[in-house]
Queue: 2 jobs
Job 1
Amino acid sequence: MRKVKLLLSGLLFALLLQAQETFPVNGVADKREGCYAFTNATIVKDAQTTLNNATLVIRDGKIIAIGATGVTIPKDAVVIDCKDKYIYPSFIDIYTDYGIATPTREGAGGRGAGGGFNFNQPSQITSNTKGAYGWNQAIKPETDAYKQFSVDDAKAKTLRESGFGTVLSHVKDGIARGTGTVVTLANQNENLVMLKEKASAHYSFSRGTSTQSYPSSVMGSIALLRQTYLDAAWYKTKPAKEGTNLSLEAFNENQSLPQIFEGDDKWTDLRADRVGKEFGTQYIIKAGGNEYQRMKEIAATKATFILSLNFPQAMDVEDPNDARGVSLADMKHWELAPTNPAAFEKANVPFCLTSADLRDPKQFLTNLRKAIDMGLSETKALEALTKVPASLLGISDKVGSLEAGKLANFLITSGPVFASNTTILHNWVQGDKYAVKEDAWYDIKGTYNLTINTASGPVNYILDVKNATTANVIGKDTLTGRFTYDGKMVKLNFSTTPVRRPGGGAGFGGGGFGGRGGGGAAAAPAGPQFRLSGVANGNSWNGVGEDTVGNKLTWSATFNAAGTASAAGNTTGRLNNTTGRLAKVTYPFDGYGWEEGEAPKQEDLLIKNATVWTNEKDGKLENTDVLLKGGKIAKVGKNLSDANAKVIDATGKHVTAGIIDEHSHIAAASINEGGQSVTSEVRIGDNLNPEDINIYRQLSGGVTSSHILHGSANTIGGQTQLIKLRWGANDEDLKFKNWDPFIKFALGENVKRTTSQNNNRFPDTRMGVEEVLNDAFARAKDYEAAMKADPKGTHRDLELDALVEILNKKRFITCHSYVQSEITAAMLVGDKYGFKFNTFTHILEGYKVADKMKVHGSNASTFADWWYYKVEVTDAIAYNAAIMHKAGLNVCINSDDAEMARRLNQEAGKTVRYGGVSEEEALKMVTLNPAKALHVDDRVGSIKAGKDADVVIWSENPLSIYAKSEKTIVDGIVYWDREKDAEQRKKIAAERFRLIQKMINEKRTGGAGAVRPAEPSFQIILSCGDHEHKDGLYTIDIQEDETVNK
Amino acid sequence: MKKIISIFSLLFLAAGIATAQETVYPAKENKGRFFITNGTVHVGNGTVIENATIEVNNGKIVKVGTDVSASGTIVDAKGKHVYPGLILPSTDLGLKEIANGVRGSNDYTEIGEFNPNVRSITAYNTDSRVIGVLRSNGILLASVTPEGGSVSGSSSVVQLDAWNWEDAAYKMDAGIHVNMPSFINRFGRRGGGNIPPAILAQLGLGGGAGGADPSKAALEKVEEIKSFFRQAKAYLQEPTHKNTNLKFEAVKGLFNKTQKLFVHGDQVKQMLIAIDFAKEFGFDVVIVGGSESFQIADLLKQNNIAVILGQEHALPATEDDDIDQPFKTPAVLQKAGVLFALNDTHDEARYRNLSYNAGTAATYGLTKEQALQAITLNAAKILGVDDKTGSLEAGKDANIVIADGDILDMKSSSISAAFIQGRQVSLDNKQKQLYERYKYKYGIK
């Protein structure tokens, strides 16, 4: 405790020193220039330049001279001998909220307040922010960190102890977060520590403390940010109707600053980068730590990244039941997370390092050293903490290296800063000293001649000091006692006769002199005892003491010989963790992903002698061959041959076109943007998740394309995305290229929020639903006309843009619908505005209005046999598909369910049973018909020369319950191969075993706190919010509360 | 042949004139003798008899075989497949009409932790619209099961063609149902960053009690449940009581083995606790759910624990699992010799796909007859009604389904006739009626 007091008084002193001119002084003026000279040091000026035996001189908080030679030490300088010490520029943390109060959510209640759309909660349609600000509570570019900043020395101390001297601080809240400010970590008045008021502008996709309902999804946040860029550009034209909008004004002003985006995940990073590029901005991206899993895509952004060193802790997986829930991906990430910085260096992607997100801020250096062990170079590490952030923030004139004229922000260390046994001794900020580990300044390790002057004359011992808390006193015996050294004060308490200590050696367990700390466990010393206290002054120590009977005495100790190993200057001893076997990065990053170079490739394949369901006028062909070349179907016929093609014998097998799921919710980070009744601005394609295991699982069921729909939370939902199930591809490559874009609409119970007891969002009835449609298209018509008349003067609106596309047949609707009244009403709105409802999906009462749908020109996409899970499906019948088919509609069977999608062929088989659809027509309902509904039947949906080689080889009749896909081929690439899958399972088992053993070892050897309880890797299954899903033990089905908002 | 026509014409008549389920009538008691001839008879115990005849008298099966001579009333099943009536082994049928948005139609979860005295049979709605649809898919019996709390109440086996629940009751209060607490740590957050903490927090999974040990809470709950049964056991030693305890009295059958204890749980630890229940109390224990049972099949066998598996058409529990694990779990149990039944708990298809769930199990390792047995005889054994039903054997009730083809495969599984206790039941239902109505509208044949 005394140590702390000492430090505090020192700081108070420093505060007085630099009080500003305009501030009155209470007392007597005490102006000091704080001139110091640090001599004999190894000075690392920057990552490239190291000076040996050099001198650094500072005055008034700045460096005035630095060099190995020719530095004149001013007479008024306090000289500090830094022999064996290293001096570094102190670090810069570009991603903190230092000195900023944690934002809190106001007036929020209930589960839904956290982020996602909730079918059961009332909506908050408008912003709660008071003042002339923008419409959305999550857009707050008007926030300026410099206005909120106040010095917080407790936090500063933690950062200083990790080596930081300067930080960029901002308010981590909202989508547009306003500006960040650069401050030092000196304990001075705010006025003096602020280096740059507005240094950066900050963004994220998280709405943070905003209680407003919109946006409630990743894609909603993306859309809102895009719209804000457009709004801000428009605001520059000073539109009269907008009045004063301080948010947009600030947004525009902030554009000249470095733009920093909180990505926090590899895919989010890419999403952010795309938004930035769309509006001519290159974000600096705060990474999430898993970027090494997609380094190629990350590098392609050309962005600079900010890397956290928050590496996951090992888990306690000794109990196999606990281990079972932990995914291989999570275990691999535990092993590989420390390789993230090295991966950036290797890929030549510029980056900074931050202490953000650490569970324990004190772990920064430990984790940094771990990253260095994993291949990060020390040079890059230092640059990432100095030069890179300084130049990004435009503060290189002040910090980031040690040069005359710059701030006196530097570290004094006991050795090279990244060496594992080096300690930071001092962290000087703006010329003020902050001791980090004063007691390590002198390496006291060694032996000392201890002389105690007792009444009966001097008694001599050898004092063998191991470190600041452990020492042996050697006389006749090696004696017990306690020893502490805090950099200045020495305390020693020992008994002159040896005492056995349980489990202890002869070393003096350290800690507290007064019975505090670890020494408390020691038995009370027997025999005469000395209690000594004194001051260490280099090699000579002096003090006073008392013996057991109260005789006063004095003592002295002089340095005799150094310890065997010096604490300073040790550059060796680096652990080399890279030599052990490490997990492989796979694409995707889970058990079923492909290792680099092992992904299946496009092949020319000749499938021989199969029963081929062509879906063309040839119908079903027996004993037929299909040739796939260059990703396309080249030929269908008998006795085909091709010299270069790999032959697959499919005797007794069935070959069909790949299954196309018209209604799916897999492979996306969010599905429902329910914040408003019209959200045509949001796009599923903005937030694809190509690592959803369900992609692989569905390949095993013969699915090759899926139409990823927005959910059913609102009448006009979001823009959809057609994908091909290219397992291992990135988000962009997953997309089905050159398709007619679609959008999801929804009618009925979900959009009127039947399950909510307190709905306050319009509409609450089907009458209102119809009017939402009517109103939206009336607005779209007007907007289109206004745009034509005055393109520059009209406010661009992404929501209406999408609707205008519908009016112009450039975007097509798939509409969630159930009962005949709403279907009819919707079609009539379409007729009124001259557009078609391309597809009605679910459409369980389609059989009642099949004739009207035929006239309107709609496709139907339905379930085979679902019914009666809510009122609007009371009249749903399994014969629906058959009736609609026979009434002349193009009918599809879809899944809307990650599990059932694996068995869509069999769902189609049900139409044979319910209503007597022919087998060939039944198969078309999951292949050619959805291709037609999606306008891609020129490329997929049948076995025809020229079409994409999206083909499935089935073990038997694909409509049968006994059919299994043996191979599922997309673009001529065999993504699913039942035999290969069996191999993959073995690999997963072996790799899981290895990592579980490694974690168990970590638990046994890592000491207390080495592991945390096993945390199951829950998979989130997103769905439209329409019905329940049963998806297994470690799965969370998000239907009501759907979000990936943080 | 004329007789045959008359049997089937009854149905056509019903379909032709009826426009509402209200005119689908439960069949009258079977009196006298009839024969189902020339069918491929799947006995339900693994045996298949080609060209067999089944003789039924006064609602009971008298003979099954190729040597049975038929005369009088004959149902010709030539080219067809004949099966025992399928059994839905644990269901909310008749208790849950419309799950979402219509609270008033739901009677499957009672308030309170210990409700062994709650009896599902008293709320079973014989007029549920779901029932007719199930009959037409060959499901003729079901065990109607309450949910909720730690001890949910008693289930009863019903037959699916009745005027009211007293008529429907096939075996009353056959099982007491216990819900095992979860041993999975739901406080975790995913390390890989795929699930943002806020989602978990929002779902009540994240952030919270760091390092909270779910096993501890679960074991406390288990102890509470055990304590209930220990006290019940003590109470039941005494024939008379000053203070009657209905809850204790409701579990009497567990101790004298006239009832079974159905323990609902999927996790290994939940199942191990279930085994422990069997050991401590000597109960006949059945696990309901059991998605992880493939890991401890041998233990289940050793301890004579039967399993009613959950929905077969389910995703694997973890992303590393074999992607077809749920499909092949039945084969693991079969191989280990565990007595198990398959179920259909799908809330959207409303349990009509029981036979296709079994079909999938047959695709992934069971033989077709084993798969069939898992939805007939095994279920009957587990529910304690195998003396009356579950297979086509002499002495049992004539609960019989005739299908056009393989009942396990959707494309061939149209049901042409069904008998419960020898009564030929209507296969008409609301869906068929609406089908007829709109075929009429569009002039579809």
Note: The longest strand of chain A covers residues 36-46.
Job 2
Amino acid sequence: MIYKVISKPEFRAFIEALVTANTSYGPRQVDTDSHGEPIYQFMPVSSADDIAFDYTVTTSSAKHLLMPFRDELSRFSFSDGDWKQQVDYETPPIVLIGLRPCDISAINILDEVMLKGAYPSPYYLARRKNTFIIGMDHLPLPDCFCKSMNRHTVNHGFSLFCSDIGNRYYLSINSAKAFSCLKEFCLTDPSYEDNCLLIERRKHIKQSFETNIEVSGLPVFLDVEFDSPIWQKWGDKCLSCGSCAMVCPTCYCYSVEERFDLDLRGSTRESHLYSCNLVDFAQVAGGHNFRPRNGDRLKYRYYHHYRGFSANDNQQICVGCNRCGRTCLADINPKDVINDLRLEGESCVTCVSPSPAKA
Amino acid sequence: MRDMRFTIPGQSLNREPFIDRIPDFQKKCEVMITDRGYKCKITNIVPLTSQEKLFLLRIVDPMERELFSFRPGQFLMLEVPGYGEAPISISSSSSNQEFVELCIRKAGLVTSAMFEARQGAMVSIRGPFGTSFPMEAMRGQNVLMVAGGLGIAPMRAPLFWIGNHRDWYKDVRLLYGAKEPSQLLFNYQFEEWKKVSNVNLMTIVEHPDDSWKGRSGMITALFDEFSIDPDNTFAIVCGPPVMFKFVCNHLDHIGIPMNRMFVSLERRMHCGMGKCCRCMVGSTFTCLDGPVFDYWSVMNLKEAI
């Protein structure tokens, strides 16, 4: 890692050069919501003017640029009662601009899930290797809780990370490619003053969090509270629409489906990103559903995110961006569910064994 | 101006699977790319009942045929091009390199498409995936096999194995239950298993018809008819989810240690490679850590049965 400082106009020129030469995605304002607040999404950009550098948060994460909602896994072409299968992992290189630390952390988690184990995913590997990531820090929104998940800073997984220090950016350069691209531009070594400004900035971000969730010891809580009535309570609210999984930066569960071409001369096998809240997620042939109730499926999602599965070394995969909470139609957000669960657990402990002082 | 184009040649990522060596499926760290299937020809179709058929598949490429090896209890992903993939347990002998036998019940899209297929049709298989029954660990012990309904399909592979290594095992017993006499699968092989493999076979049906002369009732009723030596017996249980609970509780009651009871779980896998999470039970994958689990691990999993 090399640290440099760049002025904002010079950085803009760098982005301009990068964007013109590559397929790039960055935050763009696509609409305004009912309160007149802008809505941002990661969209293709063709010049630095398209990018909203001071955006708050995008509605969807950048996940779908590495794991598309529909991804072709293989192709079959039919002829004379026989078929041929083609598997193609090749992808064009892309540049992602303006990812937040939580988004980059999410990509690091996806790396671990998709590239570890007995069967690393070649589709993901090809995309990941061909992706150039420029991260930018930001002041948290009132409902962000990435600090609770310890994902408000990120140390790896990006090519270049920019911290805003007034009229300049403090750059953390993490790849040789990024460094050689930046050589053309006017960089200075960080002065003592710049270092102080960076530390101030970090401190300021850390102190700006308004939402905190106590997640320590949560895996045990979840195991103990498996049959807790709160899952039914929140399950009754849940509409099983799957929006949370679509916007989540780490939800990676998918289904594999196949469809014929219109001319019936071939077919494609595709992976579709899926949501564990959809009703047929755990259904097997013959119609038996292992998680038939809304509450079961909601619980499963919380287990995956806050307890973690063995494929991911039992790590928590939530990064605390609260996209699911913002997008939920039934107003379910992780903060409330976890606090509810914890309340349930802790009140139970106090009523079983009263403290000696009370007795 | 410096060249700002950011490139990594994508071609270098395109790798051919299984080019010149036999993949080691027991080794966890092995990098395997299994998106390309083995092309198979349906060489024979044996109708078993109105809902189940036995398909004999032969891998077309002779080299791939040699590479495909599996252990009893593993499953494969059967692909009918254009329709999709379904996980199917292998029910042929693991020593049979020529044919792969799959016992399939008509249940969903892929299996219905398979039922329409005729001899000579080309399908594709990926795999094998998953864990297997510990046939070596059972050496010198009694083996008790309990199958219910379609559970006989994954049970055939260990049965063939035992037939090939009969001197390894002491007393081998197969309990097989079905709803109706007509739903007893592979009844043409019963005599072969009894005489050639020296397996003590007991069958029972839940709803007997007039022609049925054997036992009737639930499968657990069979346990009253013989005695089990709990210290020297391994149990293998395959069947519908509701059967596991009763049978395993009964075996536990008799005193067979839970880590010597093996069950084969059923889930709808989509990738077979521990990525898609569709087969997740508790926090383990059925496709990587299963489908064969010992009952002790299953007991600790939530929502398993």
Note: Chain B has six helices and 15 strands.
